[in-house]
Each structure stands twice: as structure tokens, then as C-alpha cells.
């Protein structure tokens, strides 16, 4: 098959939601549907002591939250679909944001009883910023939740996006009869664990006993209203993320999934071109292999001490054993071991194309944001966004004899993007920066278990971090306890301000210093 044909059949999406909306369940059901896994029930839950195939790390098992993103591929209707799972917990939003930089579309899972929750809103905004198509799956229709119109209105008003229901629910909870498929005007009757045996497909034109039911009548009226007064279907608006196709279903009951997938593959884009630092774009069909690393995860297999760098293929064809160059160092790396993740299995990858995510075994060469390219592919992709941390801790090794392990651990965890690293200017005191408190806890846990180093962390609290455009104009006297000057991992100068007041005071006193913050 040609590169064009391979690219055309690929779809890569990130799945976002507030914790507990059903993201993990939906992911598993999609994989099940695509035949990537054989049986359901391998998914967690947190409550029964089983864990999802995507929850690798021990820390997250203990906490019952998804700390890291994971990647899986499955086949559907001739398409190869890559799902990138993201941690729902807001303390790990940096990881989530970076993952969203590696997808071409997003699927937003909403709990029908809860509507739009804070984390959904945050993640949605990142997708919106990227201008990628967003598909909505309203989940848990087998339970009593909000009315469909109320949910659509909430989506439109809170997220400022138009909605286009592709399916419409008939009832909910105990009276959930099924969904109307808007495209072909058929009804898919709800079956939960085969308990409710309604085997025939009904058509809206051929009346059926359940028609008498008030839920059905009601749904039919609502459906007519949607047809007459709802937003128009507009593929261009879907493409720009201004209109979201909406699906109703129950991930737990594997219901409404096929309707979702059918539409998804039709309207989600195949892999998109990507910007380089030269402001040109690389097309996915370009012959030369190129990709970038958006995530590094250590020790996924407790028996081996390996790190895996997740690379999103941007163009060309990846082949096992190929020679690549790391743009940052211009060093050659022969890729002899690469894996693709198939739910509960890892598979060796022999070839991959734009949109695919491959896991490269890494012995400490790669960093988040790195570009790799093959023959004739020399480029550097635009950097991934960096985030302004708000929480800071002084950190040191409990045992001074363990300095080497301590710095090795910090270096690797920082390269992975697990935490940010700063140091004071004259004394080189290491300071950790994080977006969420749990990052520190994961850091401490991993330093102990992976680098055998007990650490002491001393909170210095919430700070306002500001980078400086004209670094050469900084004088020592500008650094005080209320405007503490530190260096980031690239040795850029950064002020950690005590509070808003200290920031303003500084800007008034030193108007020549141009401050800015990251994302
Ligand atoms: P995540 O935190 O978004 O990954 O959510 P999970 O997939 O872990 O689901 C959270 C809880 O909701 C679990 O107990 C699931 O079994 C349950 N759940 C998920 N989907 C459904 C559904 O369609 N109906 C019902 N009733 N429960 C669901």
C-alpha cells in the first residue's frame, strides 16, 4: 500500500473527561469493538481491585487514578485508530496537554448525570486552542441523568460550541429503550448484558408496541424538534472544532459505540501536517520519516528498567532497524526496538505511518519534544508548550552519600516531564516546580522505588513564576525573598514572586525588565 493510502486510513484521537465519567470503560469497549482485546472485564475498576489495561504504574494503582497517558491501536472498518488516553486528574494536566498535542481529534466523554465538569472544561479548552475536531459521547444513559436537551444546552453554553446530535436517546435509566440513529432513522434497542431481549431493529416508520410508551413518544417529539430546529450538520464546522457531533450511550453496556465509531471514522481527519521551527509544514504523506516525542514513561515493565519514549509519526514510513537522527543533538540512533501498544499486549512494530504512535526503548537519550528524522528528513518540529508551574519545593537527598542517585533520578524524571527542575542562582539549591500537588508525591515515590533515594522536600509554597525576555539586564539586587531569582533546566532566569502584589511592585520598580509567563 502506498504512503497516501496508509495515511488515509489512520485516525488518532485523545480521549478526555472528568474523572469517573467513563473514559476508561469507553476506551476498553472501543478496543473490544475493534477486536483488539477479547473480553471485557479486564478493565478496572478501581473499586473491584482490577485495573485497566492502561493503568501501568503502581502509584496510580494505589491511588486509583490514571496518572499517565497510554496509547492503543485498534482496527475498525478498514481504519487504523489510535487512542491516546489521558490522565483525568488535574494534577497531571501537563501530561494531558502534551498528549493532546499529538492527536488530530478528541473525544469528550460526559456523564449524563453530571454534565460538564471542571476538568472536562479545562481539557476542552486545550482542544479548542488547537482547533481540532471534538466528538462528544454522553455516557451512562442506563442511569437516570439530565434531560438530553439540558445536556446539549449545557455543552453549547459552557463550551461555546454548536452541537449536532447524531443519535437521540429514548428514555433513560430504567426506561432507557435505546437510541434513534439520525442518519438512517433507525432505532437501536438497548440491550444490557443481554437481559433485555429486543432483537429486531425498529424503523421509525414501522410502529411497535413500545411506541405506546410515553418515553418513546416523548423522544420522538424531541427528535422531530431537533430535526427541525437544531443546528445544521456542517462538516466544515466539525473540522475546525466549532461543532461537535454528539452521541448518547452506555459504555458499560457497550451501547451506542458502533454509531459513534461509524461517524467518527467518516468525519475525523486523517493525520494532519505539522509545523516546524522554520515555519514550514511537514505533510504526512512526505516520503521521509519524521516524528516527535511527546511523552516518556519509565519502568513500565517492573522487571526491566527501561524507559519508553512515545513518538508520534508525522511523515513517511517508519521501519524497524532504520537509522534516524535526533535533531537536538544531530546524533544518529538506529531504532532496533520499537513497540506499538495493543491494549493488554505490546507488539513489535515493523512499520508505522503518520498518526501512529510508537514506543522507542530509551536509555536516556530522548527528551520530551524531541524530533527524530530519517534519511532526507532533516527538520525540527515546533516545541511542545511548556507550562508555568505554581507549586514549588526545595528538594535534597536525605543521605548525602546518595547524591549521584539523587541527581540521576531528578534528571530522568525531569526529562520525562514528570516534574520541573529549577535551582537557586548562587547556591544551586534544587527546586522542583509542579502544576499539581500529586506530582510531588509521585516524584517522591518514584525516587524511593526507582532510584533508591529517600528525599527531603520542603514546601516553599505557591509562587508566581515569570521568565525574562532581556536576561542580561538582571542585577543581583533584584533577587529578594519576595522576588527570588532561579534558573530553569535550560539555565534561563526565572523570578519566583511571592504573590501578585510582589509581581506588580517589581514591574513598577524595574520597568526595563520584560517578564512573561509560559502556558
Ligand atoms: P474514568 O475515570 O473516566 O476512566 O471512568 P471509568 O471508566 O473508570 O468509570 C467510572 C465508573 O463509572 C466505573 O465504576 C464504571 O463502571 C462506571 N461506568 C462507566 N460507564 C458507565 C455506564 O455507561 N453506565 C454506568 N451505569 N456506569 C458506568
UniProtKB/TrEMBL annotation:
Residues 8-272 form the Tr-type G domain. PANTHER family: PEPTIDE CHAIN RELEASE FACTOR RF3. It is found in: Cytoplasm. InterPro entries: EF-G-like_DII, EFG_III/V, G_TR_CS, P-loop_NTPase, PrfC, RF3_C, RF3_dom_3_sf, RF3_GTP-bd. This is Peptide chain release factor 3. GTP binds at residues 17-24, 85-89, 139-142. The gene is prfC. Belongs to the TRAFAC class translation factor GTPase superfamily. Classic translation factor GTPase family. PrfC subfamily. GO terms for cellular component: cytosol. One of its GO terms (biological process) is regulation of translational termination. GO terms for molecular function: GTP binding; GTPase activity; translation release factor activity, codon nonspecific; translation release factor activity, codon specific. Gene3D superfamilies: P-loop containing nucleotide triphosphate hydrolases, Peptide chain release factor 3, domain III, Translation factors. The keyword Cell inner membrane does not apply. Keywords: Cytoplasm, GTP-binding, Nucleotide-binding, Protein biosynthesis. NCBIfam families: prfC, PRK00741.1, small_GTP. The keyword Protein biosynthesis applies.
Amino acid at each position: 500500500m502506498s504512503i497516501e493510502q496508509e495515511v488515509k486510513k489512520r485516525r488518532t484521537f485523545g480521549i478526555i473527561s472528568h474523572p469517573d465519567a467513563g473514559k476508561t470503560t469507553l476506551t476498553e469497549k472501543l478496543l473490544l469493538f475493534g477486536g483488539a482485546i477479547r473480553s471485557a472485564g479486564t478493565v478496572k475498576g478501581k473499586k473491584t481491585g482490577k485495573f485497566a489495561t492502561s493503568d501501568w504504574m503502581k502509584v496510580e494503582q494505589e491511588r486509583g487514578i490514571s496518572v499517565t497517558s497510554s496509547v492503543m491501536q485498534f482496527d475498525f472498518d478498514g481504519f487504523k485508530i489510535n487512542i491516546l488516553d489521558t490522565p483525568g486528574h488535574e494534577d497531571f494536566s501537563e501530561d494531558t496537554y502534551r498528549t493532546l498535542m499529538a492527536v488530530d481529534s478528541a473525544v469528550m466523554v460526559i456523564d449524563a448525570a453530571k454534565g460538564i465538569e471542571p476538568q472536562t472544561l479545562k481539557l476542552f479548552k486545550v482542544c479548542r486552542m488547537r482547533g481540532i475536531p471534538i466528538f462528544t459521547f454522553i455516557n451512562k444513559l442506563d442511569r437516570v441523568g439530565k434531560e438530553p436537551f439540558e445536556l446539549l444546552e449545557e455543552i453549547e453554553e459552557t463550551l461555546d460550541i454548536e452541537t449536532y446530535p447524531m443519535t437521540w436517546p429514548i428514555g433513560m435509566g430504567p426506561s432507557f429503550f435505546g437510541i434513534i440513529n439520525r442518519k438512517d432513522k433507525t432505532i437501536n434497542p438497548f440491550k444490557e448484558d443481554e437481559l433485555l431481549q429486543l432483537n429486531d431493529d425498529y424503523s421509525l416508520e414501522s410502529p411497535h408496541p413500545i411506541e405506546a410508551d410515553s418515553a418513546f413518544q416523548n423522544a420522538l417529539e424531541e427528535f422531530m424538534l431537533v430535526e427541525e430546529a437544531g443546528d445544521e450538520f456542517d462538516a466544515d464546522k466539525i473540522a475546525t472544532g466549532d461543532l461537535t457531533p454528539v452521541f448518547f450511550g452506555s459504555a458499560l453496556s457497550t451501547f451506542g459505540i458502533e454509531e459513534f465509531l461509524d461517524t467518527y471514522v467518516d468525519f475525523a481527519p486523517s493525520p494532519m501536517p505539522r509545523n516546524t521551527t522554520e515555519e514550514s509544514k511537514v505533510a504526512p504523506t512526505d516520503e521521509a520519516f519524521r516524528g516527535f516525542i511527546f511523552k516518556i514513561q519509565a519502568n513500565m515493565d517492573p522487571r526491566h528498567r527501561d524507559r519508553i519514549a512515545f513518538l508520534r509519526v508525522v511523515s513517511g514510513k517508519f521501519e524497524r532497524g532504520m537509522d534516524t537522527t535526533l535533531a537536538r543533538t544531530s546524533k544518529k540512533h538506529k531504532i532496533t526496538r520499537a513497540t506499538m501498544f495493543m491494549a493488554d499486549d505490546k507488539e513489535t512494530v515493523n512499520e508505522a505511518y503518520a498518526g501512529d504512535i510508537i514506543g522507542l526503548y530509551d536509555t536516556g537519550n530522548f527528551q520530551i519534544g524531541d524530533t527524530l528524522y530519517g534519511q532526507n528528513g532533516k527538520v525540527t518540529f515546533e516545541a511542545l508548550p511548556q507550562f508555568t508551574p505554581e507549586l514549588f519545593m526545595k528538594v535534597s537527598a536525605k543521605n548525602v552519600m546518595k547524591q549521584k542517585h539523587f541527581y540521576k533520578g531528578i534528571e530522568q524524571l525531569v526529562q520525562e516531564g514528570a516534574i520541573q527542575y529549577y535551582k537557586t542562582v548562587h547556591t544551586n539549591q534544587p527546586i522542583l516546580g509542579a502544576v499539581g500537588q500529586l506530582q510531588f508525591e509521585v516524584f517522591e515515590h518514584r525516587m524511593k522505588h526507582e532510584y533508591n533515594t529517600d528525599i527531603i522536600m520542603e514546601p516553599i509554597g505557591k509562587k508566581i513564576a515569570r521568565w525574562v525576555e532581556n536576561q542580561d539586564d538582571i542585577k543581583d539586587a533584584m533577587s529578594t525573598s519576595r522576588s527570588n531569582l532561579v534558573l530553569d533546566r535550560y539555565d534561563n532566569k526565572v523570578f519566583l514572586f511571592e504573590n501578585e502584589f510582589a509581581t506588580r511592585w517589581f514591574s513598577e520598580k524595574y520597568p526595563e525588565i520584560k517578564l512573561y509567563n509560559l502556558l
